[in-house]
Amino acid sequence: MEDDAPVIYGLEFQIHIVDFDDENNIINKNVLLHQVGEIWHISTSPADKGVLATCYNKPSDSKVLTCAAVWRMPKELEPGGHESPDDSASPAHTLELLCHLDNTAHGSMACVTWEPTGDGKKVISLADNHILLWDLQESSSQAVLASSASLEGKGQLKFTSGRWSPHHTGTQVATANDTTIRGWDTRSMSQIYCIENAHGQLVRDLDFNPNKQYYLASCGDDCKVKFWDTRNVTEPVKTLEQHSHWVWNVRYNHSHDQLVLTGSSDSRVILSNMVSISSEPFGHLVDDDDLSDQEERRPEGKSQEPPQDSVIATYEEHEDSVYAVDWSSADPWLFASLSYDGRLVINRVPRALKYHILL
Known about the structure:
By secondary structure, the chain is mainly β. The protein is 5% helix and 46% strand.
């Protein structure tokens, strides 16, 4: 039986759906036409794997505006569909437009992020200095602006990225603008925390720990990856300085949160083992409240060795800047990276580490 792990990435005016057949070690792809413009960001609905949102360039008068829209892919191409990808035989398919996220009054879209645990009917888009919460109605054929908030301050403030937390019943979103990270409550669209000068230069990406509700990772143009406890944002909990150029992406493993991927303009992908700040620092599940209790109960002189964080592997198959890394949703040990020259690389967590985590 084939273990298909779909990967979606965008080229100019196209989206490629890539299927990795693990059993036979074969990569196949199908092409979806995206005729409205060059794609800068893609995000898929967590509730309906056939629905996705894109941010794309659209010429407008004398300038280029980045717009956003929600689409549905053909049924046969959805994960679990019946069509077998074949590079030579498959013609290009067409996306079905469901709705536009109207940004005419708000500026260029930076990204769209979906409510991670909902029914796929709520999305947040970041447009210039605006954070916009949308309700997708009528089978996602209509996007209604439910609420919004704006950055206020000196200069031209613009969001660069955002991430919706899978915790707190879907009520918290983190955003980045310039060197600052902010947390927002989606119920009131009010700010709940602010990390000024989180990085020495532009913050590129954010990701929430899937198992520890207060932990957030960030990366930026200062070549660093930082881990934050949003209850106390005065200092990062940990900092990684393994890359030698801008860090574009940081991603927690969906199942084993000690595994963290980063991709950089130094053309490298780094897989790190951040076990000391994971939900399983001693090989079993531990939540934040249990740690202090365990320390109090531990007999004197029998302190447990602190877990050691480390770089597991550095991958150098790319010859250009790595702009995207992500984990497979089908296989927790599989991940993909994409570089500026269009090269897609699929790798696996080293077998020895996999069994160390499992056993």
